[in-house]
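Researcher: I'm preparing a figure for a lab meeting and need a structural model of a single chain. I don't have an experimental structure, so a prediction will have to do for now. The sequence is pasted below. Please return the structure as tokens so I can convert it later.
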Amino acid sequence: MRRRSRAEGRIYDELNLTPLMDLAWNLLIVFIIMATASVQGIKVDLPQASEAPSMAKPKTKAITITEDGRVYLDTFQVSLEELEQRLAAYKAADPSLPVVVKGDARIQYQVVIEVLDVVKRLEIRELGLVTQRLVK
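Model: Understood. Here is the structure written out token by token.
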């Protein structure tokens, strides 16, 4: 392949492949780094789980307090007396009953205290308060 340089009027009888080879080597290095970076960690022999889904029902009971002060145990609306009765029944069946309280941010604090009093009277030791994560 012969080319003429316009500036010098000289004929080139070879093609300069150095920039093309530099690009090829750089791409190869990037692919090697990406391939090794995607497989990180220490190799361990992982245990195998059964393919059947877990049949155990979740034991945690959720008490939800809405903005207007209504109280729900899981998905059923209850009064405070009903809440205490149902939680007592669940606690009799499972003494280590975990309970989480999800209250709307705009509710009155008194309703939360009343629900926490019910939980305290029933001596439920595993109690969680659900919040949202702070967005930084």
